[in-house]
Amino acid sequence: MIDPIAIQNQLYDSSAGLADRIGRDIGSYSTALLSVTGAGQEEELRLCGSGSLVSVENEVFILTATHVWNMMKNSAGVGLTLDKEDVDHKFFIPVGTITTYGPELVSDRDPWGPDMQLLKIPSEYATRLKERKQFYPLTLEIPEPPNVSSLEVWILMGSPEEQSNALPKHVSLTMNGMFATIRSEYNFGGLDYFDLDMKVTFPGIPKWFSGVSGGGLWSVLLYGSSDGEIRWIPTLVGMACWQLPLQADIRPVRCLGSKSIRSLISEI
After folding, report:
1. Which of the residues 45, 116, 163, 256 has the least number of beta carbons within 10 Å of its own beta carbon?
2. pLDDT score at 104
3. DSSP 3-state assignment of 43?
4. Could you check whether the bond before residue 103 is cis, i.e. omega within 30 degrees of 0?
């Protein structure tokens, strides 16, 4: 068995590649979200935010922030990113085919939301998307962790706008897995929240979190298996919805928590 300290050392050793493998695994459930307007030579793309691909029973959805959906809902379609690094690709869902579930957002300036939405993916697009991506099973009950000696880390997934290269007809994006520290937990208006500390001087963490809204907050439990390998269990525990004012080199980011995002299941 591998003890948690040894796992932590490998996790923060970039040459070990462990953090990259975990990021690719969680990234397979994650996507940037773009609005697509116009068509042909008039087509334009705009990065609006991020999302997590989830399944509820036999249906599949994009979990994202309501303010992200509001940026896309009057466009021709929603563009998703696939797991194709350095390869041009396009995956487009017409807005008119998307059914939404979630509360109305009272104000775009309210850091308490409730700023969350499930976008139902039509079956013909879901079939194609399943060939490229994974869907996290979102259940009412949060899965119990295994009873093993382990290391837990928190990772926020998203596509920071400041790390993108955007032209009207082509957008080059980075889907980034960022280590986070839990600053505090809240309950407000019947919902649960996390505030994260994101150290902007740490490699890969942006100063501004525009583009990360709607991205998933993941708890990753790492443990040593009996075959001597490091395994991990990712659990979707929240969703980014608001960045708070910068404090020295710390950017606080507010996330809706596990109970909040799972409350959307009852609206389907």
Report:
1. 163
2. 84
3. coil
4. no
Strand partners, 49: 33
Please, where are the H alpha helices in 64-103? 66-72
**C-beta neighbour count of 125 within 10 angstroms:** 18
Looking up tokens 């897995």 gives: 177
Bridge-based pairing of strands 230-243 and 150-158 is: unpaired
Of 16, 242, 203, which is closest to residue 110 (Cα–Cα)? 242
List the structure tokens of 23: 């990021």
| pLDDT at residue 96, rounded to an integer | 95
How many Å apart are CA 250 and CA 235, to the nearest integer? Answer: 25
- 18: which 2 tokens? 């462990």
What are 100-158's pLDDT values in tens digits?
A: 999 987 776 677 778 999 999 999 999 999 999 999 999 998 878 777 888 999 999 99
In this structure, are residues 267 and 223 in contact, taking their beta carbons and an 8 Å threshold?
Answer: no
Domains in the chain, ordered, with CATH?
4-27+139-260 (2.40.10), 30-129 (2.40.10)
Task: Report the amino acid identity of residue 118.
Answer: L
pLDDT of residue 155: 97
247 secondary structure, DSSP code = B
Token pair belonging to 253: 């980011």
End-to-end CA distance of the chain: 43
Which stretches of the chain score pLDDT less than 50?
none
Q: Which residues are registered as beta bridge partners of 193?
A: 186, 256
Scanning the structure block, which residue is given the tokens 């409350």? 263
